[in-house]
């Protein structure tokens, strides 16, 4: 090692073996000669005097002091905000100066979502729907970010982003139809409640597995970039889902493939019962971004203007520069994880009350509105009444006919059993109504016997009339209607 | 009862025969004469100070090789040089040159794949190909030249992350663009299992057809290759057969591969296309230069027969062809050989029709026996054709162990194991 260093010094000019080099060789003898094989010399033969590392994998400087990098979690990435907790703008130059109409739309979207959440949560408790997840406390993250996007920007969500759809004017009837799984559900009654999707509003249907949407959003962004669509893709996920491998995959792909995607992390403090202290040890999710080469920011998720500003700028740059952005919106999950959860088992009621009373996105915006003279208590009272009426429509209490049983089977391109249905030339078959059961209405397809050995198995807990029909026919099929 | 172990097969694969009773359970249960002889030979070899031969089986060149051969020459071994040097367990049989698709060119399997991908990228401006190492041409040369021809935004490397590759591919497909993802070996597809099964397969269904990822195709090299061992030899089609919503396809030849791959790419469902890697170079055929499609979910009767139905897919089809000719030659039994081609959804009609005719069914695949796709075929056929069956349905498959390295020739369902099972069925 010392010999090599000495040799390097002697050869300072880097022009190959000079006189000094020859002298050194003589001293070292044949064995030493091996070290100075022409190939080896080539490795050290660079024009720069600076002796910089040449590794393909990293382009930093050398350092000769052994020191580990200390992860900084005490004073980590700061939280960007525009309003204080009382709704006052802190730095006027950060005020987005949105028109009254827009800010009122923010407010009404958030409060309507809140009202819908209350009523649908109750519906689950009453046995009308099977399951529900509320968005309490996170309305600001939804509305602030949705407002900053173009209406055609593609949204990949996790499950707690209903406010994005609300902001995009998704009808209340369709929210509820999906929860009830009734005949109006565009999802054909196939998924649990809150798994919304809307093609028109560019909101990709929610799926239960967490973080799977992250690499998908990246792929969609890549395709949008290739198509010169001037579109961004936004991908929402929670701080818990960010622990999934898919999150790592998505971040890395977005950076290496230069995709115009916004990663929006709702850090609400809990993944069901798991607090962030058990979810990660680093400085949250925002600190991971730079590790991937991603522009990152942490914002106050309960400050709708901060969320708006950050998303707006991220969108502008993502499309212009074809690079991903990571926004970590700090917030708090005021409600339970879902109707299957009772969060008093793992957190104090005081903690929840603090966030509900002292730092809520809706109240902060209301203070702002009131401060601007755009809202007052009377309007508040009137709006509350109106929104309760909007949500509590007849549809909510009487969901109407259930989804057709044919909805259980495939429509469109994929037909079971090797194209048997197509080859038999079966088209649509009329769905007949064999009757309804209280609480859950079902339309039932007429049984159709198919020749040969084509058959579809169908096990349903069903009303007696249908059961009788099924047991008559050993081989039967249900028409697939798209 | 295992089939007779052919010594020249052992030699060509392993050099000096190892102590065979120790090899694996099933074989060890039936130490036939040749097994004992082989063990003796190994000891004799060592005693005589013979070096183990290389994998090409050049025992002839060793001193004292004559001694071994004199002791061990089984009646069936002909000592033919070509046979001893044979390293593959099958002989690829090219199909006759197709006439109906225009000009053809001699291509091997990977060239046929390249041709299909070339056609796709030419025809569909949204199509992109991505995966590990595809930019320089791919570890199996399937994407050679495509990046230069179509640009780095259309043929590109991804980071080393299968769940990312498939998830990314789903996302591209959701926007309507065509995504052709490559997984470097089917053995590494498992990190992407969640994305394939929980996402890709269910995308259209769960959204009520609002969204879909039908324009996604996943390609992966598949099956045994002679020395792949646990992680370069797997045939995971059975895992995916259990998943409604995707299609799973395995071609047997270059001509089939190009047509089937083009069909997968055009198909409106996410498809997994497994490419038998041992055929990449070994299979050479005349393949049309222009695009053409071979329909999915249609099995092909490649040889008609009346006594037994043999069903296989991928490389194993060629093994079955040989088994059929052995059966004809040695037993006078006429076999109907079916290439299943599409595993999911599979062509029940063709298989059942054939079994109704022959009354006997033998299914063979390299993947392990338990839970392998032969079990699905067997179960369905016995439901549909119970009264037509003359013998229990036979499955000749890999053992229920991970895919071994040095023991590959004993592991795979070679023609002798299949022939033996066929014989039993005939004599049932």
UniProtKB/TrEMBL annotation, chain A:
<dbReference type="GO" id="GO:0003863">
    <property type="term" value="F:branched-chain 2-oxo acid dehydrogenase activity"/>
</dbReference>
<dbReference type="Pfam" id="PF00676">
    <property type="entry name" value="E1_dh"/>
</dbReference>
<feature type="domain" description="Dehydrogenase E1 component">
    <location>
        <begin position="107"/>
        <end position="391"/>
    </location>
</feature>
<comment type="function">
    <text>Together with BCKDHB forms the heterotetrameric E1 subunit of the mitochondrial branched-chain alpha-ketoacid dehydrogenase (BCKD) complex. The BCKD complex catalyzes the multi-step oxidative decarboxylation of alpha-ketoacids derived from the branched-chain amino-acids valine, leucine and isoleucine producing CO2 and acyl-CoA which is subsequently utilized to produce energy. The E1 subunit catalyzes the first step with the decarboxylation of the alpha-ketoacid forming an enzyme-product intermediate.</text>
</comment>
<comment type="similarity">
    <text>Belongs to the BCKDHA family.</text>
</comment>
<keyword id="KW-0496">Mitochondrion</keyword>
<keyword id="KW-0809">Transit peptide</keyword>
<keyword id="KW-0786">Thiamine pyrophosphate</keyword>
<dbReference type="GO" id="GO:0046872">
    <property type="term" value="F:metal ion binding"/>
</dbReference>
<keyword id="KW-0479">Metal-binding</keyword>
<dbReference type="GO" id="GO:0160157">
    <property type="term" value="C:branched-chain alpha-ketoacid dehydrogenase complex"/>
</dbReference>
<keyword id="KW-0560">Oxidoreductase</keyword>
<protein>
    <recommendedName>
        <fullName>2-oxoisovalerate dehydrogenase subunit alpha</fullName>
        <ecNumber>1.2.4.4</ecNumber>
    </recommendedName>
</protein>
<dbReference type="InterPro" id="IPR029061">
    <property type="entry name" value="THDP-binding"/>
</dbReference>
<comment type="subunit">
    <text>Heterotetramer of 2 alpha/BCKDHA and 2 beta chains/BCKDHB that forms the branched-chain alpha-keto acid decarboxylase (E1) component of the BCKD complex. The branched-chain alpha-ketoacid dehydrogenase is a large complex composed of three major building blocks E1, E2 and E3. It is organized around E2, a 24-meric cubic core composed of DBT, to which are associated 6 to 12 copies of E1, and approximately 6 copies of the dehydrogenase E3, a DLD dimer. Interacts with PPM1K.</text>
</comment>
<dbReference type="GO" id="GO:0005759">
    <property type="term" value="C:mitochondrial matrix"/>
</dbReference>
<dbReference type="GO" id="GO:0120552">
    <property type="term" value="P:branched-chain alpha-keto acid decarboxylation to branched-chain acyl-CoA"/>
</dbReference>
<dbReference type="InterPro" id="IPR001017">
    <property type="entry name" value="DH_E1"/>
</dbReference>
<keyword id="KW-0630">Potassium</keyword>
<dbReference type="InterPro" id="IPR050771">
    <property type="entry name" value="Alpha-ketoacid_DH_E1_comp"/>
</dbReference>
From TrEMBL, chain B:
<dbReference type="GO" id="GO:0005759">
    <property type="term" value="C:mitochondrial matrix"/>
</dbReference>
<keyword id="KW-0809">Transit peptide</keyword>
<feature type="domain" description="Transketolase-like pyrimidine-binding">
    <location>
        <begin position="107"/>
        <end position="282"/>
    </location>
</feature>
<dbReference type="InterPro" id="IPR033248">
    <property type="entry name" value="Transketolase_C"/>
</dbReference>
<dbReference type="InterPro" id="IPR029061">
    <property type="entry name" value="THDP-binding"/>
</dbReference>
<keyword id="KW-0496">Mitochondrion</keyword>
<dbReference type="GO" id="GO:0005730">
    <property type="term" value="C:nucleolus"/>
</dbReference>
<dbReference type="GO" id="GO:0005654">
    <property type="term" value="C:nucleoplasm"/>
</dbReference>
<dbReference type="GO" id="GO:0120552">
    <property type="term" value="P:branched-chain alpha-keto acid decarboxylation to branched-chain acyl-CoA"/>
</dbReference>
<dbReference type="Pfam" id="PF02780">
    <property type="entry name" value="Transketolase_C"/>
</dbReference>
<dbReference type="GO" id="GO:0003863">
    <property type="term" value="F:branched-chain 2-oxo acid dehydrogenase activity"/>
</dbReference>
<dbReference type="Pfam" id="PF02779">
    <property type="entry name" value="Transket_pyr"/>
</dbReference>
<protein>
    <recommendedName>
        <fullName>2-oxoisovalerate dehydrogenase subunit beta, mitochondrial</fullName>
        <ecNumber>1.2.4.4</ecNumber>
    </recommendedName>
</protein>
<dbReference type="InterPro" id="IPR005475">
    <property type="entry name" value="Transketolase-like_Pyr-bd"/>
</dbReference>
<keyword id="KW-0560">Oxidoreductase</keyword>
<comment type="function">
    <text>Together with BCKDHA forms the heterotetrameric E1 subunit of the mitochondrial branched-chain alpha-ketoacid dehydrogenase (BCKD) complex. The BCKD complex catalyzes the multi-step oxidative decarboxylation of alpha-ketoacids derived from the branched-chain amino-acids valine, leucine and isoleucine producing CO2 and acyl-CoA which is subsequently utilized to produce energy. The E1 subunit catalyzes the first step with the decarboxylation of the alpha-ketoacid forming an enzyme-product intermediate.</text>
</comment>
<dbReference type="GO" id="GO:0160157">
    <property type="term" value="C:branched-chain alpha-ketoacid dehydrogenase complex"/>
</dbReference>
<dbReference type="GO" id="GO:0007584">
    <property type="term" value="P:response to nutrient"/>
</dbReference>
<dbReference type="InterPro" id="IPR009014">
    <property type="entry name" value="Transketo_C/PFOR_II"/>
</dbReference>
<comment type="subunit">
    <text>Heterotetramer of 2 alpha/BCKDHA and 2 beta chains/BCKDHB that forms the branched-chain alpha-keto acid decarboxylase (E1) component of the BCKD complex. The branched-chain alpha-ketoacid dehydrogenase is a large complex composed of three major building blocks E1, E2 and E3. It is organized around E2, a 24-meric cubic core composed of DBT, to which are associated 6 to 12 copies of E1, and approximately 6 copies of the dehydrogenase E3, a DLD dimer.</text>
</comment>
């Amino acid at each position: 090692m010392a010999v090599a260093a000495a040799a390097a010094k002697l050869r300072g000019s880097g022009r190959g073996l000079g006189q000094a080099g020859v002298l050194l060789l003589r001293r070292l003898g044949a064995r030493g000669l091996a070290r100075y094989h022409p190939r080896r010399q080539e490795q050290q033969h660079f024009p720069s005097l600076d002796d910089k590392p040449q590794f393909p994998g990293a382009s930093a400087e050398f350092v000769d002091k052994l020191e580990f990098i200390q992860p900084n979690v005490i004073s980590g990435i700061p939280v960007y905000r525009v309003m204080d907790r009382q709704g006052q703008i802190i730095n006027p130059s950060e005020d987005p100066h949105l028109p009254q109409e827009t800010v009122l739309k923010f407010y009404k979207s958030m409060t309507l979502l809140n009202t819908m959440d209350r009523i649908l949560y109750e519906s689950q408790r009453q046995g009308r729907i099977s399951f529900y997840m509320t968005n309490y406390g996170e309305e600001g993250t939804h509305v602030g970010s949705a407002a900053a996007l173009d209406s055609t920007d593609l949204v990949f969500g996790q499950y707690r982003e209903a406010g994005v759809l609300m902001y995009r004017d998704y009808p209340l009837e369709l929210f509820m139809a999906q929860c009830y799984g009734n005949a109006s559900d565009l999802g054909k009654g196939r998924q649990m409640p809150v798994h919304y999707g809307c093609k028109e509003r560019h909101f990709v249907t929610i799926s239960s597995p967490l973080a799977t949407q992250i690499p998908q959003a990246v792929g969609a962004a890549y395709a949008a970039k290739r198509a010169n669509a001037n579109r961004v893709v936004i991908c929402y996920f929670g701080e818990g889902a960010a622990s999934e491998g898919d999150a790592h995959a998505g971040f890395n792909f977005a950076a290496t493939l230069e995709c115009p995607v916004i990663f929006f992390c709702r850090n609400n403090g809990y993944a069901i019962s798991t607090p962030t202290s058990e979810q990660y040890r680093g400085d949250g999710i925002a600190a991971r971004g730079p590790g991937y080469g991603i522009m990152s920011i942490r914002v106050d998720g309960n400050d709708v203007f901060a969320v708006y500003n950050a998303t707006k700028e991220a969108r502008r740059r993502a499309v212009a520069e074809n690079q991903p952005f990571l926004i970590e919106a700090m917030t708090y999950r005021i409600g339970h994880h879902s109707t299957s959860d009772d969060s008093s088992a793992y957190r104090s009621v005081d903690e929840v009350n603090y966030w509900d009373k002292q730092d809520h996105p809706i109240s902060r915006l209301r203070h702002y509105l009131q401060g601007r003279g755009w809202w007052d208590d009377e309007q508040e009272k009137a709006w509350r009444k109106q929104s309760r009426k909007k949500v509590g429509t007849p549809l909510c209490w009487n969901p109407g006919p259930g989804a057709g049983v044919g909805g259980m089977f495939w429509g469109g391109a994929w037909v079971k059993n090797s194209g048997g249905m197509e080859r038999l030339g079966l088209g649509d078959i009329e769905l007949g109504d064999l009757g309804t059961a209280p609480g859950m209405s079902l339309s039932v397809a007429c049984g159709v016997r198919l020749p040969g050995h084509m058959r579809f198995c169908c096990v349903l807990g069903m009303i007696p009339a249908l059961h009788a029909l099924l047991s008559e026919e050993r081989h039967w099929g249900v028409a697939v209607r798209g | 009862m295992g089939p007779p172990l052919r010594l020249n097969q052992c030699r060509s694969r392993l050099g000096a025969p190892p102590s065979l009773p120790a090899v694996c359970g099933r074989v060890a249960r039936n130490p036939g004469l040749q097994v004992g002889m082989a063990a003796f030979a190994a000891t004799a070899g060592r005693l005589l100070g013979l070096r183990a031969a290389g994998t090409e089986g050049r025992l002839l060149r060793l001193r004292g090789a004559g001694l071994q051969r004199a002791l061990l020459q089984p009646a069936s071994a002909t000592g033919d040089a070509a046979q001893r040097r044979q390293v593959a367990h099958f002989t690829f049989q090219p199909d006759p040159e197709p006439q109906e698709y225009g000009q053809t060119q001699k291509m091997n399997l990977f060239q046929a794949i390249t041709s299909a991908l070339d056609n796709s990228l030419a025809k569909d401006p949204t199509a992109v190909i991505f995966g590990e190492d595809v930019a320089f041409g791919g570890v199996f040369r399937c994407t050679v030249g495509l990046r230069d021809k179509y640009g780095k935004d259309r043929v590109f490397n991804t980071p080393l992350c299968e769940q990312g590759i498939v998830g990314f591919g789903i996302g591209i497909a959701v926007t309507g663009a065509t995504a052709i993802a490559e997984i470097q070996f089917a053995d590494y597809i498992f990190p992407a299992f969640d994305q394939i099964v929980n996402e890709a397969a269910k995308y259209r269904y769960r959204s009520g057809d609002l969204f879909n990822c039908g324009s996604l195709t996943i390609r992966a090299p598949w099956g045994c290759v002679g020395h792949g061992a646990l992680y370069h030899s797997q045939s995971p089609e059975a895992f995916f057969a259990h998943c409604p919503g995707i299609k799973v396809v395995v071609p047997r030849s270059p001509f089939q591969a190009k047509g089937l791959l083009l069909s997968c790419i055009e198909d409106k469902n996410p498809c997994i296309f497994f490419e038998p890697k041992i055929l990449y170079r070994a299979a050479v055929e005349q393949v049309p230069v222009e695009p053409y499609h071979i329909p999915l979910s249609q099995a092909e009767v490649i040889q008609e027969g009346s006594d037994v139905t043999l069903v296989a897919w991928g490389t194993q089809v060629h093994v079955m062809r040989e088994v059929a000719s052995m059966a004809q030659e040695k037993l006078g039994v006429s076999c109907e050989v079916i290439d299943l081609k599409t595993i999911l959804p599979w062509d029940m009609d063709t298989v059942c029709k054939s079994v109704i005719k022959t009354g006997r069914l033998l299914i063979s695949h390299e993947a392990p026996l338990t839970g392998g796709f032969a079990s699905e075929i067997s179960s369905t056929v016995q439901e549909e054709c119970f009264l037509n069956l003359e013998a229990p349905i036979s499955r000749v498959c890999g053992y229920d162990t991970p895919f071994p390295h040095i023991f590959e020739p004993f592991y795979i369902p070679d023609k002798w194991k299949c022939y033996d099972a066929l014989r039993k069925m005939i004599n049932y």
